[in-house]
User: Fold these one by one.
Assistant:
Number 1:
Amino acid sequence: MLIKVFGSAVFGVEATTITIEVNIDKGVGYHLVGLPDSAIKESSYRIAAALKNNGYQLPGKKITINMAPADLRKEGSAYDLTLAVGILAASGQIVSDEVDKYVIMGELSLDGSLQPIKGALPIAIKAREEGFKGFFLPKQNVKEAAIVDGLDVYGIENVLEVIDFLEGRGDLKPTVFDTREEFYKTLDFPEFDFSDVKGQESIKRCMEIAAAGGHNIILIGPPGAGKTMLAKRLPSILPPMTLKEALETTKIHSVAGKVKEGGLMNQRPFRSPHHTISNVALVGGGSYPQPGEISMAHNGVLFLDELPEFKREVLEVMRQPLEDREVTISRAKFTITYPSSFMLVASMNPSPGGYFNDPDAPVSSSPHEMQRYLSKISGPLLDRIDIHIEVTPVPFEKLSDKQKAESSIEIRQRVTKARELQTMRFAHLENVHYNAQMNTKQIREYCELDETSLQLLKTAMERLNLSARAYDRILKVSRTIADLEASENVQQHHIAEAIQYRSLDRDGWLG
Ligand SMILES: Nc1ncnc2c1ncn2[C@@H]1O[C@H](COP(=O)(O)OP(=O)(O)O)[C@@H](O)[C@H]1O
Ligand SMILES: [Mg+2]
């Protein structure tokens, strides 16, 4: 008998329905056609054991399976359950006229239990779009799929549950999840809050500006100054995620098989890869392409702790995606794109030994060591970092201060207001949404200075020996400072503040 069942393949962050035809005939053999990879070809062993251990069997006949569309590569073991149901139906072990009404996915263990799959969210979105009645998938992934309204999703632990359901037995119910309610419930409870940080008012101010204009930022300071602590709190002062952003980010995490318990993410991601990370793990790719850290950080923050420790080549591959806000991975037969719009926060010690210009430092570095260390971060990547700030440890009295500092939600309100002004300003531009994204022409248009401000900037550039690249960055950042004050024009005191945030451009650093 010939039976049709449906699975799904994920490319980038989108799914494509895969039609699987199973035909059982006289003879022997297990033939799979339609570009399956080796994991799918090995499915017969897992399916045979899983069925046998649950009172069913792989028929001793000629089983032919065709996976369509034929030109799409099908990968991984998530088709085990689809194939198992198809085989059972084609051999009359499942009697049901509903098998082709569902998308069915899951990897089988030999005892018939299910292992999680990747991409449950995009698969569910596609299944709804194409009018399927429901989606069967491993229980571990059900919350991810349940984000989608208008599709019955069934999380199951064992192959028997889907067999029973299709034959009208058992009491399996779809998982219902009120996406909106869950989403808004905890939106105002960030995991890490700025109120935990004692003192450091000027650094917090700086991070507020970075958040308000979407400016990439680098924190420079000795070990223990609180750089990591501060960076971790940046997502909490960015404007709250919209439902649309949350879906985009959750989709990427779903494709990577890394959605957390709660399903839909409502906090901006904070990713902090170790400096030994490989190119592929950072930007994505691999023989079965997977999103990298820069995409896992989409709509959130990517924190590169100890920036000069990263391999230069790794920083190099990140440049294009940082600019384009997406990363494209090309293979002979296909090209996929992962979104990668994130804010970059970097940290560094002022020298390889951790200290700079500090006579009491436990370790000191030779000028040669210093230069080698700093040269790793100079150039194109540093060019994309608008704000440099030095972080010094807070004194002990401040640390033991009982007074509660301002909360992230309060800071976030100011950031959000400043962002709203920018959204209006750039409404007519397709690729610019906040100040950090302005190109040189737009900077000239939106950051016009009066004569005194211009003079101030000129003098500062000469006196502090600021590099030419600092010029545009200062203008952009001063635009954001003005926006935080809801000031139409960039004024002298905005410029004066922005000038302070260029530590690495001064003499003695990168020159
Ligand atoms: N301003 C601060 N307020 C409260 N705790 C702080 C502050 N600065 C540092 N700490 C404490 O010191 C620890 C080390 O800070 P950390 O962020 O790891 O420093 P760094 O990344 O600069 O080496 C933090 O986990 C925190 O407990
Ligand atoms: Mg640290």
Number 2:
Amino acid sequence: MDNRFGSKVILITGAGSGLGQASAIQVAKEGAKLSLVDLNGASLEETKNKVLEVAPKTEMILITANVADEKAVENYVNETVKYFGKIDGFFNNAGIEGKQNLTEDFGIDEFQKVVSVNLNGVFYGLKHVLKVMREQGFGSIVNTASVGGIRGVGSQSGYAASKHGVVGLTRNSGIEYGQYGISIKAIAPGAIMTPMVEGSLKQIDPENWEEVGKQFVEPNPMKRFGKPEEVGYLVAFLLSEQADFINATVIPIDGGQSYKY
Ligand SMILES: NC(=O)c1ccc[n+]([C@@H]2O[C@H](COP(=O)([O-])OP(=O)(O)OC[C@H]3O[C@@H](n4cnc5c(N)ncnc54)[C@H](O)[C@@H]3O)[C@@H](O)[C@H]2O)c1
């Protein structure tokens, strides 16, 4: 269990913050070599330092890239293979929430922006990583969907469309690639306390966002936010060989909220 990722290469997008950072730390603790991708280069340095605090020998490359740019995606995949020679696991995770609004008021540009990062970005990642994994004959992929990808949340047209799309891509590619020894799953986190959720609460009330947060989690069966490291444990398991037979499916991590009537 402790060394599930010894000699394994794990590629993570959105690795500079939140769920991507927590997952990088977890797999590095278990011996992984890391290729970390984010739009924000400074945040990648922060993740690198946090990883080295807990796993000082971690071999790691940092790649600043926009996942919504197909050429940049092709490049981060090529750079990873050039440096490490393979990709064992891919956490296809970078995403944004976008401005909340009623559907009729939802900005066209905003819709396109959210879809281009959350859906196109995940598709480009799958397209380029799957080519590598099919040739090598192994690999596991975890796409980040959301509870907003399996339920209606409201005020999030772009997010809902893109995250439901991520679930569709997961099912479609999982069916295609199982025969090549590759498993593809999605996670559907509920509210996990990361900078994204903090930003979301601040959209509702910038002054009293912590109070808004308390009310927000009241309907949750566990009455709290999830922690990034809890998602890190799940992602590590799903990327490990222990989860190879879990394919083309979506795993919620939300305290049970998405099953509540
Ligand atoms: N935190 C939650 O409650 C929650 C719930 C459900 C789903 N998610 C999903 O989890 C993923 C991670 O979210 P988080 O909460 O860690 O958010 P976060 O904002 O803390 O981290 C996201 C990271 O992605 C990077 N990023 C954003 N756009 C990018 C782009 N175009 N190219 C490359 N990198 C980019 C950001 O710079 C940031 O470092 C997202 O896909 C999000 O939709 C989060």
